[in-house]
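Hi support team,

I'm opening this ticket because the web form for multi-chain structure prediction keeps timing out on my end. I have pasted the exact lines I submitted so you can reproduce it. The total is 1425 residues across three entries, so I didn't expect it to be a heavy job. Is there a limit I'm missing, or should I split the entries? Thanks in advance, R.K.
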Amino acid sequence: MPLPRRRLRHLPWVALLLIGLIGGPLQAAPPIAGTLHSTGSETLASLMLRWGEALEARHPGVRLQLQASGSSTAPPALVAGSTRLGPMSRPMSESERAAFEAAHGYAPLAVPVALDALAFFVHRDNPVAALSLAQLDAIFSDTRRCGAAAPLERWDALRPTLSGDISRYGRNSASGSHGVVRRLALCGGDFRLDVGELMGSAAVVAAVGSDPRGIGYAGLGYLRSGVRALGLVGEDGTVVRPTAEAALAGDYPLTRPLYLYLNLVPGEPWPPLERAFVELVLSAEGQAIVEELGFVALPPPRLAAIRREIGLAPP
Amino acid sequence: MIDFSSLAVRRRQRWRQVRDRLATLLISACGIGVIVAVLAIGVFLVMAAWPLFSAPRVTAESASPGVEVAYPLQAPLPAGLEAWLREQRLERPPRALDERLWLAEAHRLARIDLAGEAPTLVARLPVVAPERRISAVASLAGGRSLIIADDAGGLRRWLVEERPPWLRLAKTYRDRGTPIEALWVRPGSRQFLVRDAAGLSLYDALAGERWRGELPAGEALGFDGEGHLLWRGEGVVRRLAIEAPHAEIDWRTLWLPQPYEGHAAPQQRWQSAGEGSLDEPKYGLTPLAWGTLKAAAYALLFAVPLALGAAVFSACYLPRRLRHRLKPTLELMEALPGVVIGFIAGLVLAPFVERHLAGSLALIVLLPLAMLLAGGLWAWLPTALRRHLPLGWAGLWLMPWLALWVALALWASPWLEAAWFGGDLRGWLAASLGLDVEQRNALIVGLAMGFAVIPSIFALAEDALSGVPASLGEGAQALGATRWQTLWKVLLPAAGPGVFSAVMIGAGRAVGETMIVLMATGNTALMSVNPLEGLRSFAANLAIELPEAVPGGTHYRVLLLSALLLFLFTFVVNTLAELVRRRLKRRYRRLGAGR
Amino acid sequence: MRRAGRPRGEGPWPWLAAGSLALSLLMLAALLLLLAGRGLGHFWPAPVVLVTLDDGHQLAGQPVREERRRTLEGHWVRERLYRVGNRDLDGEAWRWVEVGRIVAEETPEAWAVIERRRWGELIVRPLALEEAGRRLTEAPLWSAFEARLERGRALAEERDALREEVIAPLARRLAAGHDDAAARERLVAAQARVAELQAAMARDVLVVESAAGERLSVPLAEITAAWRPNAMSPAEKLLAWGSNLWHFLSEGPEAANSAGGVWPAIFGTVLMVLLMSLLVTPFGVLAAVYLHEVAPQGRLTGWVRIAVRNLAGVPSIVYGVFGLGVFVYGLGGRLDAWFFAETLPSPTFGTGGLLWASLTLALLTLPVVIVATEEGLARIPDQQREAALALGATRAEMLRRVVLPMALPAMLTGVILAIARAAGEVAPLMLVGVAKLAPQVPVDGDFPYLHLERKFMHLGYHVFDVGFHGGDVEAALPLVYATALLLVGVILVLNLTAILLRHHLRARHAAPGTR
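Hello R.K., no limit was hit. The queue was backed up. Here is the completed structure from your submission:
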């Protein structure tokens, strides 16, 4: 099966450069130390872990403590103040934002840190290459708000040479992926009751990879050799494959930005720990990690714009 | 001198007594404290779940000065729409506005879509009996439910659909009564107030009427920012504070099918809302209770025969020396953590069984046959060989024999499938028996959890069987009974209650086991008996959802209620088992067990 | 007991009973063997196989497992999974290959497995070494490479030591507001040295070639380990196996928990269990003594006893719910309001942590200790107590001098059983304080040395987390096996101790007067 080639053959040189650079700016920087707590998205967990490792390499006195059981755990933790850093794989809802403002008196700061394309995965044996959103709705939803008349129960209905009923895998309701798929692919309807609620994206991919009749959704970064990512058929019949390019260009509809939500008092200077962390995340090194883990890195112009917006010096 | 020393002795004596009192006091205090702390679990759960069932209240209080109407009683129409309505001469009938406009025309409701450039009349729908008139219409948050009241006192909830018949009746709160004058939906919730000539009522869209009271004099102004109703009467503005944080919960919405938005028929559903407040949270506990019991039932179905068989064999046939070795080994099995068993079951066993479905299902029949075959073959063995394979040791030397059969069945799995099921067992099951097959299913949970509860059932049943006074069994054998006859006619009736209590304890464990169910199922809140479909249990649901629930909210409290149910269930089951066990012990003592 | 005569007329039932026992044991054995095989096998350096496919393509990888299944289109396939590494080159570190398409397999000695800090493993053929862009001609290549790798490792060690032992404490000191010039100077000097070391480490580069013929330059500083499995003798492999195992036990997790070791999880588990036993032992024993020796033996006590016994059967997740509601939200929130008001709204104790986890588990295991201790107390003959009292001892003295020493083994059994149960419980911990990654262990050199409010890692939760949350389940699976094996090992050892202790205890009471 041909897989997309990474265009990162030059990575070692970037890494070399970075290793060389780390020593440089550090001499002038004021020492930073302490523990950074983070509660939130499971999708971002691996990213946060790697960013944490990189941060520790930059600033040896710093530690990152991570809890990751779903995006919905971030707003309560931010509201309660048990964390200042809430990674979320979806934007905060109105009510969550209102709860935050009621508790603290100001709005949380949302920093987009990467893009993630949600992909629907099928087993590697499965010859189906692309589905439309209405078909996905007919597979996954029992309210079928996107307009399909009948549910899709078997693979034969999609392609006559196949046989077997469809096994559906998904995430638990706390996860951002669950919410995004509900909003974008099911038109806000309900999931069928027999969509498995697994505790992690990796578990979804593992389950689909071992079940020839399976279909499930997870971030594009979880693509493994046991599964294939489905393209999406648009209304005009064109197929968009979930790739970094399509996500960046905005062609792939199931693309979502990943956010870091921060509890910062507006007008006051950033606390050094949070500043160092966001600084790292929005640097070339931080975005290289994004790419390494299979997410879509933000292009440099967009990075610069974000940095300007939140008041960080340009890199 | 003597007096002095006796004084010292007496003083020491008194000091010892004081110390004794102190120590007793300390022990009592600690002991009672600890026991109370342990028992507090039940109290805490009851207290945490209690507010769910406290009746909603609406109380009139003086409004703080400067309070303003944040949400008017009826959303104002956009300017263009107002003009269009005038043009159509449809000015002030009862109406509701969401993504569409709903206008009452006598007994019919007009649906006007606003999505296009100009408003379009889609349909006129008769929603009340022809002799009645619609007196009020309101649309719930999200625009997928309409509440329609009429002048004969009828109050109904209709679900909005995207294709004809456009509206579907979901629930009749009441059919007749005092004519209804107005409907006001509380902002940001699924509750609404109903004003009729006789009074004011608070309704929840699912649970129906939750409060009814007298109508204060004056008129309603609108809702303030917190969703309380502002009311002007006798020249002063007052506030009707509505305290109904958990109005959607009563025993009916928890346990009975409910007409949820988007579904044609009432449903048993557990789907907590998660993101966004516009969705209707669905707190049906029945599927979870079902899943819990289903998992436990399949676990027991697997574990009870094995554990009792093993216990019987151990109590009646095993040589003493071997028994002393074997019991601790099976106790070690009990210590295996659920997370390890769950991981093996979910990530290794489930895909494996799915690939070898035919072989695995065949094993259910094949293994007992293999055991019997071993018995048959053994009887034909030459005596010399049989002496090397005594029946008492069969529990050990049957292991490789059974392993051989397992391997054989799995190896032959594809041929089995090809020969009997046209090569596709899953398809055959779906087509001829109507059974869906999920990879992570109740069978896997039954296997894994059964494995986890075998040791506890085994240990207790074995204790009960081997505790039967030896004189009974010896008497039976002396009269010529075989060991099996002794067991069946003498030991089992004597130890029956103990065996029963062992099974009960096993059931208690299976109901509460978390990690195995969490990892080995797909956590799908289905209600089916099909062993090849998934399930979602109370315990797994708690582990998945409690960390995200906001403390004090409805979701949190419903979860705590489910924890209370688990607690009560296991507590009652265990108490029963313990009482039975005690009675049995007394009986053995009476029968003269000299242990 | 009758010896093995021919048991006429017993019928088929005994065989079914024997079969049940055999089947139970078989399952137990299969589970343990699976854990041991997969868990320990992971550390063995597997050979690299160079596979040629029928279309002429080649791939180099380590075979992992085979699968035979029916496809959706109704035919059977047999596939083999290879770990091929090179994720930055091919986009994927794993390849499923249809077995029928394999034309040739060989195990050439030159192929190496190279572990890197980023992008996972490489499975490649080393071509040459470069120093600052200049190609070296040292021969043989592999030993030269190993020597330079060793040099790099020494530099990295010095750098890490500097970071951990000099820069981190200084930075913490300065960040806490102790501003003094000497410290600042030392910090700058250390940072300069680190920069120097970094530059020195970046000097050497290894040029490698993949099976598809692509070339890649890998800086030696990026390489954490490298070996040529096909060129290793069994003794070398055994050595490598031991050292891998040691790394697993002694190091922290890497690469988003999907590689590296489990040391913080071992530490967290042990510490939590230790704290729990410190809490549960005195209270459990006191409650048992109260129930058995002090409380009036009426109907109420009988009911309380049954209730306590039954609490041992209440699901652990319910205890977790209690811990979350009462300890974390209730007690913790109160503590924060009283003592840590200055850090609010960030909670100190108002969030899950070590203390609450240990308390919750102590509550969970309390019934176990109470029941076991009570059983021990019940075994002591009443004559012993009566004799002590008759000799003029008060009740406290009788308890302290006579009863408790005799019940000591029973208490110990109870505590060990409690520990064994607590070590394996995961569900309540998910609610009250376990963390996915908490590299900062709860004990360190900062006052007050033991940080009860911190979150901690746990072996059992690590199994769940890595198996279900990790980025690459395929890569993490062997680690999960190894972690699970470790957890099971710890628990089995604890249980065995309890069983032996109980055995010893029973033996002693069976023969009175030997004391």
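A quick check on our side: The longest strand of chain B covers residues 167-174. Let us know if the file doesn't open in your viewer.
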